[in-house]
Amino acid sequence: MARVAVFASPPLRRNLQGSAGALAYTFLPPLDGQVRVPDEDFAGALVEIDGGGQALPVKELRQALPRRPLGSVSLRCDTRILKRSAKLGFDFHLASWGRGDPPPREVLAHLAAAKAREKAGARRHDVGRQLKRTTQRLGILTDIVKTANSILEPRKVIELIMQKIQQLIPCEAWSMLMLDEEKGELTFELALGEKGKDVSTLRVKVGEGVAGWVAQTGKPTIVNDTSKDPRFARRFDEKTQFVTRSILCAPLISRGRTIGVVQVINRVGGKFTQADLDLLLTLVEPCAIAIENAILFQRTEQLTITDDLTKLFNSRYLNLYLSREIKRCKRHGIPLSIIFLDLDGFKSVNDQHGHLAGSATLTEVGTILGLAVRESDILARYGGDEFVVVLPETPAAGALVIAERIRKSIAAHCFLRGQGLEARISASFGIAAYPDHALTPEGLIQKADQAMYRVKERDKNGIEVAV
């Protein structure tokens, strides 16, 4: 049985304690300025990291565990964490999404792959370097295929793929664009590099530029001198002040249909080669189906958690989300607030103008809410003319500010102008916060609902905080 030293916090320890099989863990405090390793025969070590920038004594740990694989592990996985793992020099990175994860076989596979890379490097320089590169590529490909097919969030799948591509084909920038078939455009799903944020809002017509040509033809291409290629679209460099010298571009093809393209820009250390293109195709081909599956799952899931009329989340998703967020609040000791609002005078809109006008009014309310809250907040139609706003990491005082903003927006809005009518309504608000007023999703909603009804009974168009 292989024994692994794990430097981790209690939440991660609980996840790993669910593992069993040919692997045993020795749990140690999170790695800090000093390295303390028990005198045991460890097969390797796992170190918990996050997206922060604090220094970790990885070099000292390698000295304490010579010729042992060192891996990083995190409770979540995104591009920032993957970058940090690579920068710190870990041999691999694992994500722990829940109890028993990562499974022992996955940890053992990474330990074995890291050990294999070390052995390959000990052989003759040229042969060893080639074997190490091959082992790394196979390991990354296996990691991509295995992980991509287990993730049902398109963004996470794409981040994983792009991070791995950067490891194998060093470049200044890289991006993945997804095809919007209805509009005939490519949108930047993920763009990393110096000007990544600047291009995120741009659109590429199918047939425009190198990426558009690849999307249109379904063929990969290498451009090592953009100044001599008539397909190159200079408007993107002009907008971002970035200089694109060379491009490696491949289509994402799933079930015989192009769903997007991958671009690798300005190879570091020379020109793009056919070997680079072959490697890129090897990486993206098996992942195209995983990406499409994730997108289809997301769309299907969206239908089950979205209110048909307002396109906000429904009460089913609200309860699931609140349960998850309250668990996070308990772990990290952070607050959470909800706003429960009920429209005043909505019945009169239905009575005077009919149910179609009532539906249009609810849709307009959803739009007002979307404009009044923060990007991190969650909006849900609770039922009828009742809505709930969830405010993560926000105490009751902060929720009061946002509720007042919403109240003023609704009261000032003239509804049904698109139908040639004019209607004025207001709303009554109740606020409840975790942990001050309740410790469960049901308790929070109940407390906020009761506070809202006190406003209704008083004079409406107001806000009250739960007691």
Q: What structural keywords apply?
A:
15 helices; flat; 467 residues; 5-stranded parallel sheet; single chain; Rossmann fold; 45% helix; 6-stranded antiparallel sheet; alpha/beta; 22% strand; Beta-Lactamase; Alpha-Beta Plaits
Structure description:
The protein is of the alpha/beta class and 467 residues long. It folds into three domains: 2-122, Response regulator (Rossmann fold); 154-297, 2-Layer Sandwich (Beta-Lactamase), CATH 3.30.450; 315-465, Reverse transcriptase/Diguanylate cyclase domain (Alpha-Beta Plaits, 2-Layer Sandwich). The chain contains 15 helices and 16 strands. It has helices at 10-16, 58-64, 79-88, 104-121, 125-148, 154-168, 196-199, 209-217, 235-240, 274-305, 315-332, 346-353, 355-372, 396-412, 441-458; strands at 2-7, 23-28, 44-48, 70-74, 92-95, 171-180, 185-193, 203-205, 221-223, 247-254, 257-267, 336-344, 378-383, 386-392, 426-434, 463-465. The strands form three sheets. Strands 8-7-6-11-10-9 form a six-stranded antiparallel beta sheet, with helices on both faces. Strands 2-1-3-4-5 form a five-stranded parallel beta sheet, sandwiched between helices. Strand 13 and strand 14 (386-392) form a beta hairpin. Helix 4 runs antiparallel to helix 5 (125-148), helix 5 (125-148) runs antiparallel to helix 6 (154-168) and helix 13 packs across helix 14. The longest helix is centred in the middle third of the chain and has 32 residues, at 274-305. It starts with a strand and ends with a strand. The mean pLDDT is 84.
